[in-house]
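Field reference: sequence -> structure
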Amino acid sequence: MTNPIADIEEAKVILITGSNTTENHPVLSSFVKRAVTKKRAKLIVVDPRKIPITEFATVWLRQNVGSDVAWINGMMHVIIKENLYAKEYVEKRTEGFEALKKVVKKYTPEYVEEISGIPGDDLVEAARLYAKGSAGSILYAMGITQHISGTDNVKSLANLAMLCGNMGIEGGGVNPLRGQNNVQGACDMGVLPNVFSGYQPVSDPGVSERMSQAWSVPSLSTEPGLTATIMMEKAYKGVLKFLYIIGENPMVSDPNLNHAKKSMENLDFMVVQDIFLTETAKMADVVLPAASFAEKEGTFVNTERKVQRVRKAIEPPGEARADWNIICDLSDRMGYSMNYEIARTVMKEIADVTPSYAGIRYDRIEDDGLHWPCPDTDHHGTLRLHVGKFSCGKGKFHAIDYIPPAETIDDEYPLYLTTGRVIYQYHTGTMTMKTTGLNELAPECFVEISGQDAETYGVTDGSILKISSRRGEIEVKAKISEKAINGTVFLPFHYANAAANILTNSALDPVAKIPEYKVCAVRLFRAA
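Structure field:
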């Protein structure tokens, strides 16, 4: 997030898109609700489903799945045409405005309605509402990123925020809501294939040399590594022979699961390190039992870039150990010694090699965390990014055109499928499905379908349906719901015994290599 969570309550207008906030981020959603009910902030929700947060919305735009660039460009078209944009901000702090203006010119409300299904008048109302707010906060999640145009979607939201001067101000910003508790921290630590910790490019020879010296190794490659999705494809083709998976369950979470299963079966050797025997761990040659968050010392970094202490509360069961201990022992046996006495020592090295973490030490985060960047030990952390100026100098507008999803509906597969989460289960259910109370509240998979579509296909509530795509087929119970949009069905992806990701498309965003989980074509019929 560019802004702290508390800033949501200071916003005059909030735009939520691609986020079922009350179910996926229930604590954070309370900030939105208070902003609307206590401080009279205006809320715009753009989502194809009638999710619970729409009850608090001033405007709800129901777009066709996969049409996000079109409606964002449409809002910017209205804002520019009506001279509602922040002219001084755009002139002094940004570049590329003329190219953006040229591209969005054709995205009239009428043209956007053809693509997105959003009524033109509603689009205009939302655009005016966002532009006229003195501080506008944009919140988004994986409903924006999990598309072949995911990178374009995020850049488009940044365009919209800059156009209205909402970057680097209290109550503003472009704020991704992370899907899991330490996703931000994992990315910060360099698990992305093209960066070291703190997003230092591996392609930069200077950075590579500094890291080589810090780790006392002759040289480090300046070539980026592979993303998880590309690894699976290379395993399928027999190029990649070994996988070491830590804290992931791709046998439920990966797209096109039949393909993913074949990829992992094609490996010569697979190691899984996790706290429970997941569906993926059952396929492993070796399973390394890891300690949970409550059984180890360390830090987590939350969605607002806040580095916080995690303290050991209980002893890990059996042979389970902290992840860093396991990795260090493996490294020692492979010939590179990692001599860290305690977790605090690891944090010191992170600070030593990561400029944005340079001022973060355990003794500084004993009582409360610090937001990075924190460049030295006298610095108090950075609540808001891009205040006064952008870290790269001027903010860059990206002129982006709409492209359709990788897979569209046809006579054979006439319905769109989109996937997501429910409040009572978490990710692949590794932890939550071992909890009796949660399983009573959300015991099984379901397909959410509109009343009109249910009538068309002869579906009754609770009936068993077969849903198939070009990649596979599952059986689930029907749930007729006003949340659903005609022509689109919804599946939660948590359930291994009716895995939504058997159906989903593995087409990737060309930049981030994220699969298009949110859009694919399916057909359904009553099970025998």
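Note: The chain has four domains: 5-177, 179-223+290-313+336-376, 226-288, 415-526.
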